[in-house]
């Protein structure tokens, strides 16, 4: 008799340990509706917060002056200044170093963020449709056609000037 009682006790203990506790039947019955409502609310909130399209435009402090010296095949370098303004206009100044006077070129125009590459801007025709990757406190010149970085070890980055 003791063996049967012991066997029954262990069986009950084993079955009880394997089941989920049912402490609040009211919450369990409401869980599917609440979960669906929460997912719906979270989806709505997420789509309202997440900007569509240009992530760099909304997540980086991209406006400002970027300066640096690009490599040059037949001069000491190209001193380059790119000013990006909040109204999506720019001023690009390039001075060919070691070439004497009259080797400074300045263009003004508009730019746009690339929908396919959210961290990329494209200058207008006045800026020869140049592309720049905008990062945290830098702008890097990219290939005009593909937007890819140069395979060269030469420096094509402009550093943002902190004011």
Automatic annotation (TrEMBL):
Residues 22-54, 143-163 are annotated as: Disordered. Keywords: Signal. Residues 22-53, 148-163 have a biased composition (Polar residues). Residues 1-19 form the signal peptide. It comes from the Bacteria. This is Copper resistance protein NlpE. It comes from Acinetobacter albensis.
């Amino acid at each position: 008799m003791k063996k049967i009682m012991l066997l029954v006790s262990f069986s009950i203990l084993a079955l009880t340990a394997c089941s989920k506790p049912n402490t609040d039947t009211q919450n369990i019955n409401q869980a599917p509706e609440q979960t669906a409502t929460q997912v719906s609310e979270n989806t709505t909130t997420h789509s309202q917060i997440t900007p569509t399209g240009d992530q760099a435009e909304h997540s980086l402090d991209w406006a400002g002056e970027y300066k640096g010296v690009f490599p040059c095949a037949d001069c000491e370098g190209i001193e380059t200044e790119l000013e990006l303004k909040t109204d999506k206009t720019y001023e690009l100044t390039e001075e060919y170093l070691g070439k004497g006077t009259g080797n400074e070129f300045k263009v003004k125009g508009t730019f746009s963020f690339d929908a396919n590459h959210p961290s990329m801007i494209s200058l207008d025709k006045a800026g020869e449709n140049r592309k720049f990757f905008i990062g945290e406190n830098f702008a890097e010149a990219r290939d005009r056609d593909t937007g890819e970085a140069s395979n060269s070890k030469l420096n094509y980055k402009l550093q943002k000037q902190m004011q």
